Amino acid sequence: MPPAPSIADIADALNAWAPPGSAQDYDNVGLQVGDADRSVSRALIALDATPEVLHEAQRREAALVITHHPLLFRPLNSVTADGYVSNLALRFAEAGIGLYSIHTNLDAAPDGVSFALADRLGLTDVGFLDGFEDTLYKLAVFVPDDAFEDVRQALAEAGAGQIGDYEACAFATQGTGFFQPGTGTDPHIGTAGGEVESAQERKLEVEVARWARGEILAALQNAHPYEEVAYDLYPVKQKNSRAGLGALGRLHEPMPLSAFLERVASRLNADSLRYAGDPDALVERVAVCGGAGSDFIGTARRAGADAYVTADLTYHQFFDVLAPDGTPQMALIDPGHYETEALTEKLLQDWLQARFEGVEWHRTATTTSPMRTFVPAEDAGRDSS
After folding, report:
1. Which of 218, 236, 254 is where one domain is finished?
2. Residues 201-225: pLDDT tens digits?
3. Angle at 151 between CA 150 and CA 155, to 5 degrees
4. Torsion sign (Cα): 99, 9, 247, 138
5. Would you say 97 and 80 are in contact if contact means Cβ atoms under 8 Å apart?
């Protein structure tokens, strides 16, 4: 049996799926508490870090807890027993249990949280609701013919040229490069301080994600034979096809909104739903966003969604889907934050189990949401004032 992976090994695998650089600016993802070199034979997965989750991890003798929501969103002035967050961080450290968070970077990943939500609701032909803007660069580098394949392969292995479901995408054009080696140089061809040289080169162009720039440029420098590598890196004004937020798909068969509401409540184990919409309207094209997705109400409408399922909607945001005459142009459904993201636990468990078979991956038995729904008795009086 292979040795147990370390927390760092597990983090590297998760980072390849959901790069930390794709997380939102306000977020704090990665290892929050613990020693990255500690080996892991048992781990616990939960939506949130809570005292109950920590107790469960201790009972299971888990070395690591992986949560979707970070415990440490903001820097702490001290780590003491005072305050909920500080106290819990201290207790994790004292217990010697690592705490790792994978939050908005998992929201943004292919087959991430919103894709799992779409699958749970029975959607097909699923893609991102809104791809990330301003996250792509074009890398153009000039490579001598005899080193072209080595450089192209090194860039691909580092993550360059990923477009949709395609890997190692690149484009090359042939040309001639000219240079004069200065004194003290170590040129690939020619001699230091010599005459102007020319070389048959190919211009290699690949797409680069913002969060992968460092690794890709390092791979370029290692693989390229030139002492001074000539390359251009410039922003590309198009949406990233491999990172975004929310998901958009369609039901196998259209159904009335009333039936779709029943499906949402049942499949997400929601005690109640807040919604705007006509119960008799047909729903086929559906947008979803796990967690707080009110920023994409307009995006869902422009995408032609018949219904949008997300959470943390305010009263006034339900007016955003109404036509001038007050009729709903799109159904807007809020099952709750926890309810739209609790499936993250199984998503992570299945993904990690497939890659680290020697680790016991457990989902928490705790409902980590602090929110509860109160349903009054049917015969209770109602204040009609």
Report:
1. 236
2. 999 999 999 999 999 999 999 999 9
3. 120
4. positive
5. no
